[in-house]
Amino acid sequence: MTIVFNVLLFAHFLGLAALIGAAFLQRRAAAGEALSVAWLWASLTQLISGLAMVGLRDAHVVSTPLDTSGHIKIGVKLIVLLVIAVLAILGRNRTERARGLALTMGGLTVLNIGIAVFWG
């Protein structure tokens, strides 16, 4: 099961790279262009792989299970990721606000990375 966990972790990192890539891609987009669909697919990749990794850890299949503070951390990261996904869905139809939404979503992505790294 360690191999499955590592494949999920790899997919999670690919989703993260896609979110960062979508932020840079959106910066180069012309004014009035809709948000890239990459935002949505990357956030869904992060969501599915992240929840699967938490499930494996809580089922005691790999590593040690999460303690209470670990569940709170995952909950906060989940909320931030869901906000990114909702903004990606809303931004597909609101082309006039795409640039501002992209900056917000990029900031939320960096926030999620900071939570992952600095929250004990």
Textual characterization of the structure:
- It is a single chain.
- With 120 residues, the chain is mostly helical.
- The chain has helices spanning 2-28, 38-58, 68-91, 98-118.
- 78% of the residues lie in helices and 0% in strands.
- 22% of the residues are buried.
Helices, strands, pairings?
Layout: H1 2-28, H2 38-58, H3 68-91, H4 98-118
Count the beta strands.
Answer: 0
Give the biggest sheet: none
Low-confidence stretches are none
Structural class: mainly alpha
Note the run of SSEs as H and E.
HHHH
Distance between the termini: 25 Å
Strand percent estimate: under 5%
Mean pLDDT: 89
Helix percentage: over 70%
- What shape does the CA trace take? elongated
Q: How many helices in DSSP terms? A: 4
Gyration radius from CA atoms, angstroms: 15 Å
What would a concise description of this structure say?
With 120 residues, this protein is an all-alpha fold. The protein contains four helices and no strands.
